[in-house]
Amino acid sequence: MFDLSGQVALVTGSSRGIGYAAARALGLQGATVVLNGRSANTLDAAAAALQEEGVKVQIAPFDILDIDQSIAAVDAVRDSLGKIDILFSNAGIQHREPLLSFPQQEFERIISGNLTAQWALGRHIAVGMAKQGYGRIIFTGSITAIRGKPQITAYTAAKAALHGMVRQWAAELSEAGITVNAIAPGYVATELTRNLWGDEAFNTWLQERVPQKKWGEPDDIASAVVFMAARESRFVTGQVLAVDGGLSSCMM
């Protein structure tokens, strides 16, 4: 089950963390994976590590904020590999500041990176998927779109809209053989959350608030990505799956 041999998977934001773990998991299931990030050097190192495990991999350096560059890079991938079967649209950006002092310019930048860029790149890839009559589109959502959190007003707004977009796209793309879903990660131990690992107060809160009383690992998200990318998930679309140890499901 979940054999992805012969399929091509593009994973944005995949030089490290959740994106890298997802690309690795997809590759170990047989997919040819295309790694994306802004730095070619970082991507080369990630690709080399995957190749040592027998994963078929290419790199596609581009910045998701540059939509024209992103679309050109996707077209180059299609020219090279012939198709894109799976998109895990994971790259995103963040800005933390209290609502009352949050600059509108930053709000618009975060909305652009976490919503507009996702829409534009995803739509472009969906055109090719529709022509081949098959595709899997998976977005990284957020539990902050399910439960509010201070100081990330733009991010929360963008991810909430992204969750809505998942449902709308599922309604529109299903007849073309494309499923569209999102994963909403909880607190996952990555380089981006490193500053919280050693925060005693935060870890006490996490132990009290998360039913499983632990941090998630990138592989926890990666396994959900493999499921949503597989042919076996053909009847699952328009869904947002929280992978968060139960954080968003209960009041504690």
UniProtKB/TrEMBL annotation:
<comment type="similarity">
    <text>Belongs to the short-chain dehydrogenases/reductases (SDR) family.</text>
</comment>
<feature type="domain" description="Ketoreductase">
    <location>
        <begin position="7"/>
        <end position="186"/>
    </location>
</feature>
<dbReference type="InterPro" id="IPR020904">
    <property type="entry name" value="Sc_DH/Rdtase_CS"/>
</dbReference>
<dbReference type="Pfam" id="PF13561">
    <property type="entry name" value="adh_short_C2"/>
</dbReference>
<protein>
    <submittedName>
        <fullName>SDR family oxidoreductase</fullName>
    </submittedName>
</protein>
<dbReference type="InterPro" id="IPR002347">
    <property type="entry name" value="SDR_fam"/>
</dbReference>
<dbReference type="GO" id="GO:0016491">
    <property type="term" value="F:oxidoreductase activity"/>
</dbReference>
<dbReference type="InterPro" id="IPR057326">
    <property type="entry name" value="KR_dom"/>
</dbReference>
<keyword id="KW-0560">Oxidoreductase</keyword>
<dbReference type="InterPro" id="IPR036291">
    <property type="entry name" value="NAD(P)-bd_dom_sf"/>
</dbReference>
